[in-house]
Amino acid sequence: MTRFTIRSLVAFAAVAFAALAVLQPATAQIDPQADASATTTRVSGKEFSFKLSAKSIARPGTIAFRFKNVGHIVHNFHIKGKGTPDLQPGRTAKLSVRFTHKGRYRYLCTEPGHAAAGMRGVFTVR
User: pTM above the 0.70 mark?
Assistant: First the structure.
């Protein structure tokens, strides 16, 4: 093979690999066995804050947090020892969490420095 053909094949392989990376599903399902009756709370995260559609629930139960990274860098959402994977901008993940007791539960982004910069808060179970 000529040098030109090898370079062409390498370039083609690089483009094909990049295209496959872009075609990943937009939603990552964290808990496929999630309770179908779970209440859904929408969460959006960006530099450097979270916005929740509800910051509390009236009684213990299962909450499905639907987290969307609306920022420009990687973020995640963690609460009660569970969390989403690190998400690229525009990506979404669903995280189901069962709250068995009343209380205040801290949530945060675990990317280095993000919680300190403001990506944290408290979710209340009444």
Answer: yes
**Contact yes or no for 28/85 (Cβ under 8 A):** yes
Q: How many CB atoms lie within 10 A of CB 31?
A: 15
- Average pLDDT of the residues of the chain: 81
CA atoms of 44 and 37, how far apart (whole Å): 22
Q: Which residues pair with 65 in a beta bridge?
A: 41, 95
**Burial class for 88, CB neighbours closer than 10 Å (0-12, 13-18, 19+):** middle
Q: Map 33-71 to HEC letters.
A: CCCCCCEEEEEEEECCEEEECCCEECCCEEEEEEEEECC
- The rounded distance, in Å, linking the Cα atoms of 74 and 59 is 32
Residue type, 125: V
Q: How far apart are CA 118 and CA 109, in angstroms?
A: 9
Question: The domain 26-125: what is its CATH number?
Answer: 2.60.40.420
Percent of the chain with pLDDT over 90: 70
